[in-house]
Amino acid sequence: MGFILAGGGTGGLILSPVIRALLSSVGGRWTLRLYAGFNLIAGLPTAWAVPWSQFAGSSTAAGAQLPLSFIPSYTVILGLSASKGSNLLAASNAINAVSRILTGYAGDRLGRQNTLVLTLFLAASSVFAFWLSSVLTTTSSSLSLWLAFTVFYSFSAGGYYALFPALIAEVFGIRQYAAVNAFILFVRGLGTMFGESRWRAAARELGGGK
Q1: What mean pLDDT comes out for the span 145-173?
Q2: CA distance 15 to 21
Q3: Do residues 132 and 47 touch, judged by C-beta distance below 8 A?
Q4: If phi over 0 gives left and psi between -120 and 50 gives alpha, with beta otherwise, what is residue 48?
Q5: What does the radius of gyration of the chain's CA atoms come to, in whole angstroms?
Q6: What is the C-alpha separation between 76 and 162, in angstroms, rounded?
C-alpha cells in the first residue's frame, strides 16, 4: 500500500516545477486549462473502473495536505523567489513519497495504529514547534525553522496516507470500508473547504509583519 500511495508524492514532485514553468510561459488561465485537461484524461479510466461508492469518498480534499499548500506562498513571504517556493514544494512531495513507503513498512512491524498515532503527533508538533516559531521569531532564523517544518511535516504526514486506508479495513472490516472511508473523507473535505480560507487569512496577517 505504501508503494502505491507513494505515487501521490511522486506526482507532486514532477508537477510542481512543470506548473511553475507553465505559469511563466503561458500564464495562469492556460495553465489551469492544461492542468484540467491532464486531470480529465488521467481521471477518466479511474472513474470508469472504480465503483461510485468508493469514488465519491476518494474525490474529497485531503486535509493533511493543507499546510503543504502554503509552502510556495509562505516561502515568498520569507523573501525567497516564487521558483524557490516551487522547488521546495517539489522537495516536500519527494519526502512525502519516501515517507509513505517507510511508514507503511513500519506499520507492518510496529502496528498500524501505533505508527499512525506517532506520525500524527509528529505532524501536529511540527506545526507548533517549527512553523509557528518561524512566524513569531526573527527573520534571520525564520527560514531555518520553515525548512525544518517542511521536512518534518512532509515526512510525518506521509504516514497518514500510507496507514489510514488499511487501518479502516482492519477496524471496520472490508465490507464497511467504502462507507466509512467516504464519511471520513467527507468530514475532512469540509475541514479543508472552510479551514483553508481561515489559514490563508491568518498567513497574510502573520506574514505581513515579516
Answers
A1: 86
A2: 10
A3: no
A4: alpha
A5: 18
A6: 30
* Residue keyed to cell 472490508: 174
* Residues in contact with 24: Cβ distance below 8 Å, sequence separation at least 6, in sequence order: none
- pTM equals 0.67
State the pLDDT at residue 199: 64
Lowest mean pLDDT among 49-53, 144-148, 196-200: 49-53
Question: How many Cβ atoms from other residues are within 10 Å of residue 73's Cβ?
Answer: 14
Look at the chain and count its residues.
210
The cell numbers describing 133, all together, are 516559531
Cell of 149: 517544518
Neighbours of 160 (CB within 10 A): 22
In angstroms, what CA-CA distances link 152 with 56, 88, 140? 31, 13, 20
- Alpha-carbon gap, residue 67 to 53, rounded angstroms: 28
Q: In 3-state terms, what secondary structure has residue 81? A: coil
C-beta of residue 35 within 8 angstroms of C-beta of residue 19? yes
Q: How far, CA to CA in Å, does 19 sit from each of 83, 94, 109, 168, 174? A: 11, 16, 38, 34, 38
Q: Are 93 and 155 in contact (CB under 8 A)?
A: no
CA-to-CA distance for 154 and 148, rounded, in angstroms? 10
